[in-house]
Amino acid sequence: MGxxxxxxxxxxxxxxxxxxxxxxVAVIDYQGLTVAEITDLxxxxxxxxxxxxxxxxxxxxxxxxDDANWQPVSEFLSGASAFLIIQDDVGxxxxxxxxxxxxxxxxxxxxxxxxxxxxxxADVKAIGDLPSKEQLMGQIAGSxxxxxxxxxxxxxxxxxxIARGIQANVDKG
Length: 173
Fold this sequence. Notes:
alpha+beta
């Protein structure tokens, strides 16, 4: 049973809408995944601000045709494609996919596109290895606290040294 033209146009429009608010698209070969496994992957991605869209390559091709930022995705359009469309936490979404891939062992990451640039499988995995925004904020806060503590200790040592110098002068006098 074929899809009507209106249905096809709606699918392409929905893809365009998702892409318009996304930072990155990763393309995976999902052949062999069950509906339950795809549902599991979607469940893992949702909290990271990402979706897994299983659609025909021709629909994605039409969705990216007029958008130079996403046209490089066409390099990955072959075979059974699923698209990880990532809007928020890019690193977190890639990590969530990596954890899913370890358990399912059925998917293959082909690559991705971010800011109009083609990313190899290794590039995408490297992004997944980066610390999250929360981890970076924690590291910065920790560093600032350490600097503040060192300044406080330094100021205290200066005042103590001045007090000792004054006391030594008083003792001599």
